[in-house]
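Hey, I'm writing a tutorial for new members on how sequence and structure tokens pair up, and I'd like a real worked example in the thread rather than a made-up one. If someone can provide the structure for the chain below, I'll link this post from the tutorial.
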Amino acid sequence: MSETLQDWRHIWLYAKGHYARSGDLLSDLKVLVGHHSAIKPEHVTEGDILIVMCEIAHPYLMTGNAESKLREFLANLIRISQEKKTPLSVADVANRLLVALSLVRTRYGGEEVIKLGEPDYNLLPAPAK
């Protein structure tokens, strides 16, 4: 497992639906980023969240046909902004990065190639079943 993946595995697990979403995406991400950084969530900034999310997603946006993936990612952000008729918020961008992470396959042919480990429900609650 890469260092970045291991370091930020709870954000990956969050992206893939292994944690419940509170309805406040940035608050949830502040908990996860704060846990990793050993700081209280209230000290995590929106900029910190974007830096972390870009660091995690970047390698996966740049694999395969990287130009096409990056173009699609940016086009989706522009589409969202136009639909909302307002500038994109940090939550909009973080959500699109989570969607990109959620689409990364962790299993190929029945074999687990990216090991995310187990969620820690002391951080965020389990999703409803």
